[in-house]
Amino acid sequence: MSFPGTYTALITPFRDGEIDVPTFQSLIERQIAAGIDGIVPVGTTGESPTLDTDEHIEVIRLAVEFAAGRCQVVAGTGANATAEAIELT
Length: 89
Prior knowledge:
Blueprint: E1 7-9, E2 14-15, E3 18-19, H1 21-33, E4 38-40, H2 53-67, E5 72-73, H3 82-88
Parallel strand pairs: 1-4, 4-5
Antiparallel strand pairs: 2-3
Helix pairs in contact: 1-2
């Protein structure tokens, strides 16, 4: 497996305690428009310990949906609990 190019670890924007879906989509659109090769939702931005499992899965699902095959999506599956990281992977 090879991951050539540049990949951006995305932040997950929140508003009023919920994932800010329109802003997240906008972030992805900007990355794609800039020519990024891939995005990493729930990557190295420190969010894995702060998102619950459902939020973690939803962020990845949204990223895949919004990228729509226009760039690679590498799902961040890190977690504080080994069993959770295995499940997410």
